[in-house]
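anyone seen this seq b4? input:
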Amino acid sequence: MFIKLKFASWLLLAALLCSVVPASVSASAPDKPELEAFLDEFMNSKMKQYPVPGAVVSVVQGGQTVLMKGYGYANLEQKMAADPHKTIFRVGSISKSVTSTAVMQLVEEGKIDLHKDIKQYAPDLKLSYIDHSPITMHHLLTHTAGFCESIYAVGRDKDQQIPLEEAVKAGLPGLCRKPGEQIAYSNQGMSLAGYLVQKIEGKPFEEVIRDRLFKPLQMNHSSFHFEESDPNLAKSYSYENGNYKAAPYSYIHYLPSGALNSTAEDMTHFMIAHLQEGQYEGSRILSNKAAKLMHETQFTPNKSMPGMAYGFYERNQNGLRLIEHDGGIDGFESYMYLLPSERTGIFISTNSGEGINIIEQLIGAYLDRFYPDSHKVTQAANPTTVQELKSVEGYYVPNRAHLRGPFNFAQNLSAVHVKAVEDGVITMKDQRYLQIEPNLFRNESSQELIYVDREQHTLALSSIPTMIYERQNSPIYHPALNIGILLGLALIYPLQVIVALILGLIGLVRRKRVRIDWFSTLVSVLFIVYFLFVISTQELFVHRIPQWSFLLIYLPVFLVSVLIVRLLTSLVRKRRVTVLQYLFLAATAAFVIYLYSWSFFSI
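predicted toks r here
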């Protein structure tokens, strides 16, 4: 009897344990044969589905490298196989995790305070704070400094690359919001963090990283500079009309944000060091305390949503918390995933822009295979009524779309529409989201979450933790309407030129004088020049913003002023002013005001 009771007690204890232990514990990391079979099947299938010439993958578990493999070609012309040991891939923004690690080393040494004004480390920085709220290193490492996005002066050609200090001081964008308010991914912000590392250490950034990280981690093939003549450097490709075309390399100014070059093997050393809280084969790059701090959630829009760690962002999927970073540059696409609870890290890099589909699908396939999700979507017991949910309806624009200059208007192309359809249910991009907590919604068919902040009129997506969506509060805002207004007003000028040319030709054929408003036609030609300039600014300003550009950026303001002067002069001199001239001036004035409202006159 005692044996039976004891056995029953053990069964009850086991049942209780199973009920409280997370699902991930019942699953386990795969052994090498199982992992290799999975990766081979996944990579071979996906590289057929998407045009990707080559890729490398490396996986670490429990402080050891368990698998490194290459697939396809790193160089199609030379038939050079992708080798995880020696093929160098450009890993783009994964650089930010490396830069952040160096920052944390200086924090440990007392050289940087995460919560002090960064101007104390570089007093010559020309930063205008909002309401005297200082930017701190904490803000830079979590992308919450409040910088507007800028796509200018990022660099490309080797012979025009400028030093990091010059790039940072000349290219820092203005602030769109106070520090600490929102996550808004910023290349310039992380590069500023890298520059401060350089300034504090008193030697070039790339040397600091080499001495502090690459040497102790034995990352012998990694650097923030590269030589195109390096025989181990992979080539990237675009895919056009059934053929691969080699893409040129770029030499960006912002090294700390995106210039890292590495191998799959070197990245295993970096992943192991982070998964072992700063230690790799007897070398320690961070203390346990600093590593834990770096990996903890440092900023999130809501406790139920993934947010930012220092140099990593979070993902919650299949019952596991991941910290990760991706990177894309020159057609190379890379991703680094760390699963701290499983002591597992995965790195993948491809040499085609189409590789973005593979790198983003890999982690989902891996987790579904080895850590399947058993959680069912359960709607909140007392969901918010559809009438109350109407308050969150509207168009939301990503805060990264607030750009400096004319491309600010492009945010109309990235707006998403949220609509309340029934109690506790909203839709976005034709997907239904069920309310599971107050202001928190989960996709019916996936694990994606939406958090809506009704007070701030913002929206956060769990699939994109690096930015926030802001609601456009104007009752008449509609992306299609804005695009229609812009195109409708812009068409006035080519039409004016076409009509003037047609009338001129008619006059020549009939040998009669035809009344043509050549002044308005000249203004129209100059507006066309302005439009051509605007759509070319990203290419024209890829290295730096020249002073002459301000003459063209303000050209519409000058032109409408000239039209006003012409009208006033005609009225004073009692010259005839036609209805069309009045309309042309009115339309031009309205257009200039509209352009101003979309920040067209700033760079």
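The chain has a mean pLDDT of 91. Residues 2-20 form the longest helix (19 residues). kinda curious what u guys think
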